[in-house]
């Protein structure tokens, strides 16, 4: 019985187990290749660096599993951070500034969800459009200037350390635990998988596909707002280029972790492992002195390999 349960578990979580083994092997090899890599200072530094992308990857996982994609997340971080940051710097009101950040991000997520879920616009086109709008508005509202001088409490609370680990890293872990439960145990999670697997079958079974599709994009928007706050805590400034490229990092983390771009498959456990591997890989390339111009090539190969492996696994299963 135990062997059957183990076999079933490994079959259901093949991608996650595979990427975990890859990460462990990579970590061991790099520990010998670079004496700095496995030091507590470097590990804590990488964990701090990955927090923003890891939070964005939660929302991206919901969206991709539902059969969509969200290309706007980087610029949502930008516009929500600019508007909330400018308000904080002018008034010193931390609470209202936080609400502006979360409200703007959630609003853009709702707009994305409405366009994709109810208006039936392709996710790639809809989110590409909102990405461009958010980028433009960030420059218009800020006049091309950066925002800084946020209330000190933002940095003091966020950067407070317990066992030398910053509070926002603890927040990331708690957030993943909560969202893993949401995805695995709630109606929202179950319906997300059903929609991503087969929208027509989900609709015939009584699921409000449009509503739950919109909810996935709203979750992505909320994660953008939380990631923005963490980014503001880390940098204590925002400018119109903040968030550039974060959408690709979030997608890469999810895909490397086994989330299927076809929808219906993947988990947040896999996403977390994927983000870990992706972030530590970039850190390793820096420690090894790899030319920055070549680093994109290496990470791109890893992403393509992950997608190819997932595709071949699906064919074998079929």
Question: Can you describe this structure?
Answer:
The structure is a single chain. The protein is an all-alpha fold and 318 residues long. It has a domain at 47-243: ABC transporter involved in vitamin B12 uptake, BtuC, CATH 1.10.3470.10. The protein contains 14 helices and 4 strands. The strands form 2 sheets. It has a two-stranded antiparallel ribbon. It has a two-stranded antiparallel sheet with strand order 2-3. Strand 2 (161-162) and strand 3 (165-166) form a beta hairpin. The model has no long low-confidence stretch (mean pLDDT 88).
Give a quick summary of the entry:
The chain has 318 residues and is an all-alpha fold.
Mind telling me the CATH class of the domain at 47-243? Mainly Alpha
DSSP strand content: under 5%
Q: Give a quick account of the main beta sheet: strands, pairing sense, barrel closure.
A: 2 strands, antiparallel
Rg on CA atoms, Å: 20 Å
Mean pLDDT: 88
Physical arrangement of strands within the biggest beta sheet = 1-4
> What's the shape?
globular
The rounded distance between the terminal residues' Cα atoms is 26 Å
CATH topology of the domain at 47-243: ABC transporter involved in vitamin B12 uptake, BtuC
CATH superfamily of the domain at 47-243: ABC transporter involved in vitamin B12 uptake, BtuC
């Amino acid at each position: 019985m135990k062997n059957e349960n183990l076999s079933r578990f490994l079959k259901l979580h093949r991608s996650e187990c595979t990427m975990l083994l890859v990460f462990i092997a990579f970590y061991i090899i790099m520990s010998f290749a670079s004496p700095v890599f496995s030091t507590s200072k470097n590990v804590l530094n990488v964990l701090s660096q990955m927090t923003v992308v890891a939070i964005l990857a939660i929302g991206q996982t919901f969206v991709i599993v539902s059969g969509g994609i969200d290309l706007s997340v980087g610029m949502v971080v930008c516009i929500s951070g600019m508007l909330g940051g400018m308000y904080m710097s002018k008034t010193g009101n931390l609470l209202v500034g936080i609400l502006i950040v979360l409200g703007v991000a959630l609003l853009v997520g709702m707009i994305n969800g409405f366009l994709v879920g109810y208006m039936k616009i392709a996710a790639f086109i809809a989110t590409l459009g909102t990405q461009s709008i958010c980028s433009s508005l960030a420059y218009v509202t800020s006049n091309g200037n950066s925002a800084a001088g946020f209330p000190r409490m933002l940095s003091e609370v966020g950067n407070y350390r317990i066992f030398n680990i910053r509070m926002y890293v603890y927040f990331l872990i708690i957030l993943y635990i909560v969202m893993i439960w949401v995805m695995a145990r709630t109606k929202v999670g179950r319906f997300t998988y059903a929609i991503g697997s087969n929208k027509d079958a989900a609709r015939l079974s009584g699921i409000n596909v449009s509503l739950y599709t919109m909810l996935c994009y709203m979750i992505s928007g909320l994660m953008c707002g939380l990631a923005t706050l963490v980014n503001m805590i880390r940098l204590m400034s925002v400018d119109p280029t903040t968030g550039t490229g974060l959408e690709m990092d979030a997608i890469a983390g999810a895909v490397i972790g086994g989330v299927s771009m076809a929808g219906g498959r993947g988990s947040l456990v896999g996403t977390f492992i994927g983000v870990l591997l992706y972030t530590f890989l970039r850190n390793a390339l820096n420690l090894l002195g790899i030319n920055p111009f070549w680093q994109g090539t290496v990470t791109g190969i890893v992403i393509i390999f992950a997608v190819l492996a997932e595709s071949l696994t699906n064919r074998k299963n079929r």
